[in-house]
Design goal:
The complex is a heterodimer of chains A (about 500) and B (about 325). With about 500 residues, chain A is α+β, with helices and mostly antiparallel strands. Chain A has a domain at about 315-500. In chain A, about 50% of the residues lie in helices and about 20% in strands. In chain A, the strands form three sheets. Chain A has a four-stranded antiparallel β-sheet, covered by helices on one side. In chain A, strands 4-5-2-11 form a four-stranded antiparallel β-sheet, with no helix packed on it. In chain A, strand 4 and strand 5 form a beta hairpin. In chain A, helix 1 packs antiparallel against helix 17, helix 9 crosses helix 10 and helix 9 (about 320-335) packs across helix 15 (about 440-460). The longest helix of chain A is centred in the first third of the chain and has 26 residues, at about 5-30. Chain A is globular, with a radius of gyration of 30 Å. Chain B is built from ten helices and 13 strands. Chain B has two domains: about 5-50 and about 150-310, ATP-grasp fold, B domain (D-amino Acid Aminotransferase, Chain A, domain 1), CATH 3.30.470; about 55-145, Dna Ligase, domain 1 (2-Layer Sandwich), CATH 3.30.1490. Chain B has about 325 residues and is α+β, with helices and mostly antiparallel strands. A seven-stranded antiparallel β-sheet of chain B has the order 11-10-9-8-7-12-13. In chain B, strands 1-6-2-3-4-5 form a six-stranded antiparallel β-sheet, with helices on both faces. Chain B is about 30% helix and about 25% strand. In chain B, helix 7 (about 235-250) packs across helix 10 (about 300-310). Classes of the chains: A alpha+beta (about 500), B alpha+beta (about 325). At the A-B interface, helix 14, helix 18 and helix 19 of A face helix 1, helix 2 and helix 6 of B.
């Protein structure tokens, strides 16, 4: 075996050895699970408050989770360089106050909490005092009174009262009084607010609360309102958007009342983002964190120690080498032709958001429409850079068109088209049209389908739950991917397609 | 329908992966690629070394220079417009005359006409890198339009057949001629439907034909036999091909030669990554021949190398 060959094998085996032993150590000694758990046990919630500092002293306050039915807070911390942070209980729940005498420019403050499911914590709260009737001006007061009486006649207890009330608020056209009270508002927050004041008029304690859904890898969680109604013994929960009763299991209650999530005195352009990720932390690790025992250097250097938003980015980035491996296999071992070397990987990343079938459909539609425009542009005789720029512009416009159309037809997949890498799309259109003209439609379509097939294969592998889990929890598995790349790079055997291409050479053997 | 890897290995078939790692990467140093990727540079190199190439009429390196097009071809009715960095015959236009009735109209090889403006637009496209690898800036070349040798009159549809000689370390290892067809639009490119015909290296006679990977004995358009044609000037042609090794220093080289009616063999272009279809056209695996050539010590003169080839590859 020549030296170069030996060197490649040595490197590959070394990389595989390091990758496998690191993985083994982490799974055995540190207890990271090798296989994805069906149930995420720990959620990391991170609220990022950012604002532009003004001239004077700055006082920022932000609600933080306090009463969280169904969840318990394992650990929380505040990252606020230069600011003093004080958490405290207030009427809306809990809040943190950040203060600083002077600051300049963009400020970013973090609150991070690790929460876990804890069914024992559900419904723990004191019985609230009876609310006082709201003071409303005419004609709202009469409308409120009539609605309360009307709903009261059709309900038996606070629970059914609230249910009936929400039903009416959600269909305001049917009832003039309700229509007047809502004044055209249809968003859940307005409905919940109106419901609380009407419930108060009926002397039923209630409050609007807000929170987020704990969905994995959500980089900007939407804040959803919820209605809490006390029936004399326990709290009942209603969804003001649908009127349904019962708190979903993945809803994390954040604060109550009508105040904003955060307010900043002495700052402007206030923006709050809440990011959520489920962390794969097994019970051993959970216990370790709870006791705040520091782990070994390898666990410290883990990806899971990064801010959640960065984690979410890496959860995708780490999949790219996996896709590249699939491309290398399909091109070097099988012999599939594609447009551009790693274009299929980027398309496959977009497929993750659109789902495969929709992705293929959207991709084909965009490329086909793009090609049609491209053939027209050919007749206009433009210089190359301007022409590709024109194709890019058209691709972006087409994406916008598909999104708007998808929104009109209420197809959610239409919205995800924006995730396609538009430059890659434009270059694909450009290269495909060149091949089309030079080599004919057959070659162009064949290569196009080849690219699509490779992208689909990349997606299939990158979307495997095991693969996604492994690259995030054990990024060292990428060393094994690297080793495989080296080995494929030294593969000098035939490609699968060559077995067909050169068949003539073999078949002639007998007749010669 | 399929062959087994074992069978291909037994026939000494060279695969793309092996070609890339064992030959292209090993024998073709990267820094020499520009010599062959840029046809203008190849041509100048060949002219300096006294190697026959089609005459250069002019170049256009910026969109502004395309204005000179009319002047550059004023003295020529027949000419070829091509990108200096093109590959696979893409972007090449072959002109065979002018319109007798309308000024500024040039006849293409397929009989259609292009105007001055259209040709200049094509040249601008070439310059902006439409046909070059990686889309980098390119240069448009105008050169002598080769008239095919009469030997090809009945086995070629329009365009000019070209002869590909695989030269390894200066030793010709295999050769084939590519005959344009109606399907290939007059281009001598196997991808596009040209017929590839293997050539016996020693005698210069054609052997088998291959059309999109299937064996054929006649030209699909003319119906003439394509096997057993004796190519003229074969020894001169082989010498020309072999000397391209000294010219470029590239060990694994595809040399494309045209047989001109008046000027004999001319080097058209060189290729640092020659394709593998030559194996199908000759029904010969390249690997064994390459291994035999690999065993010879370096430093032999062109004449000695050709002598070795005639001895080694004589078909019994």
């Amino acid at each position: 075996m020549p030296r170069r060959e030996l060197q490649v094998w040595f490197m590959a085996l070394l990389l595989i050895g390091v990758g496998v032993s690191l993985t083994y150590y982490k799974s055995r000694t540190l207890g990271f699970p090798l296989l994805p758990d069906s149930r995420a046990e720990v959620w990391t919630v991170e609220a990022t408050l950012s604002f532009e500092a003004g001239q004077g002293p700055i006082k920022a306050r932000m609600f933080i989770p306090g009463l969280t039915p169904g969840f318990a807070i394992l650990d929380e911390n505040f990252v606020s360089r230069g600011f003093g942070a004080t958490p405290r209980y207030v009427t809306g729940g809990r809040e943190v106050q950040w203060a600083r005498r002077r600051a300049e420019g963009q400020q970013t403050l973090y609150y991070r909490a690790v929460v876990y499911e804890d069914t024992a914590g559900r419904g723990e709260d004191t019985t609230p005092p009876l609310p006082s009737s709201p003071l409303l001006a005419e004609p709202f007061n009469t409308a409120a009174q009539m609605t309360v009486e009307d709903v009261g006649r059709k309900s038996a207890d606070p629970g059914s009262f609230a249910g009936e009330l929400l039903r009416r608020l959600l269909a305001p056209a049917a009832d003039q009084n309700v229509d007047l009270l809502l004044d055209g508002a249809t968003d859940p927050v307005a409905i919940a607010e109106t419901a609380t004041s009407l419930l108060a008029a009926a002397l039923i304690p209630s409050r609007m609360v807000r929170g987020i859904y704990l969905k994995d890898q959500s980089r900007r969680s939407a804040i959803a309102p919820w209605l809490m109604v006390h029936d004399g013994t326990t709290w009942l929960y209603f969804d003001p958007a649908t009127g349904e009763q019962g708190l979903p299991e993945d809803f994390l209650l954040w604060w109550s009342g009508t105040d904003n999530l955060a307010e900043v005195d002495g700052g402007r352009d206030v923006d709050v983002r809440i990011a959520v990720s489920s962390n794969v932390v097994d019970p051993v690790n959970l216990a370790r964190r709870r006791s705040e025992v520091r782990e070994g250097p390898i666990a410290e250097l883990s990806l899971l120690a990064l801010p959640i938003q960065t984690q979410a980015v890496y959860a995708i980035l780490l999949l790219v080498p996996i896709g590249a491996l699939v491309v290398a296999i399909l091109r070097n071992l099988v012999g599939v032709q594609t447009f551009g070397t790693f274009m299929p990987v980027l398309i496959a990343l977009a497929f993750r958001e659109t789902q495969l079938l929709w992705g293929i459909l959207l991709f084909s539609t965009l490329v086909a429409l793009g090609l049609a425009f491209r053939f027209y542009l050919e007749r206009l005789r433009l210089l190359a850079i301007a022409r590709i720029g024109a194709v890019l512009t058209i691709v972006v416009l087409l994406m916008l068109g598909v999104t708007i159309l998808g929104n009109q037809l209420e197809l959610e997949s239409g919205l995800s088209v924006a995730l396609f890498p538009m430059v890659i799309l434009a270059m694909t259109v450009e290269r495909m049209s060149t091949v089309w003209e030079e080599r004919g439609a057959g070659d162009a379509i064949q290569q196009g389908l080849g690219s699509l097939a490779v992208a689909a294969a990349c997606y299939a592998v990158m979307d495997l739950e095991v693969v996604r889990h492994l690259v995030v929890v054990f990024p060292e598995t990428l060393l094994i991917v690297l080793a495989l790349m080296l080995l494929i790079g030294r593969y000098t055997g035939y490609r699968l397609t060559e077995l067909r291409r050169f068949r003539e050479l073999v078949q002639r053997e007998g007749t010669d | 329908m399929w062959s087994l890897p074992r069978q291909l290995r037994a026939r000494g078939v060279l695969g793309i992966n092996a070609r890339n790692t064992d030959y292209v990467q090993r024998y073709n140093p990267r820094h020499l690629y520009p010599l062959v990727d840029d046809k203008l540079q190849t041509k100048r190199l060949a002219l300096d070394a006294g190697i026959a190439v089609p005459a250069l009429y002019g170049t256009m390196a910026t969109p502004g220079e395309t204005k000179q097009f009319t002047d550059l071809v004023a003295a020529h009715d027949e000419f070829v417009l091509k990108p200096a960095h093109g590959s696979g015959g893409d972007g090449i236009l072959v002109f065979t005359g002018r319109s007798a009735r309308r000024r500024g109209q040039y006849r293409l090889i397929d009989g259609s006409f292009l105007s001055d403006a259209e040709i200049r637009f094509h040249a601008t496209n070439i310059i902006s890198g439409r046909y070059s690898l990686g889309g980098t800036r390119d240069c448009a070349m105008l050169e002598y339009c080769v008239r095919a040798d009469p030997v090809f009159d009945h086995v070629s549809y329009r365009g000019i057949p070209d002869i590909r000689v695989m030269v390894f370390r200066g030793y010709p290892a295999a050769a084939m001629v590519r005959l344009p067809t109606r399907a290939s639009h007059g281009k001598a490119n196997l991808h596009q439907g040209a017929v590839g015909v293997g050539i016996d290296l020693v005698s210069g006679r054609t052997v088998y034909g291959v059309l999109s990977s299937a064996a054929t004995d006649e030209h699909p358009d003319t119906g003439e036999m394509i096997a057993d044609i004796q190519l003229p000037n074969w020894d001169k042609l082989l010498e020309l091909a072999a000397s391209c090794y000294e010219l470029t220093g590239l060990g694994y080289l595809g040399v494309d030669i045209v047989l001109d009616r008046y000027h004999g063999p001319l080097i058209l272009e060189l290729n640092a990554r020659p394709g593998l279809a030559i194996q199908i056209a000759n029904r010969i695996g390249l690997a064994q021949r390459l291994r035999r050539i690999e065993a010879i010590p370096a430093g032999a003169a062109v004449a000695d190398r050709l002598g070795w080839v005639r001895e080694a590859f004589r078909q019994s």
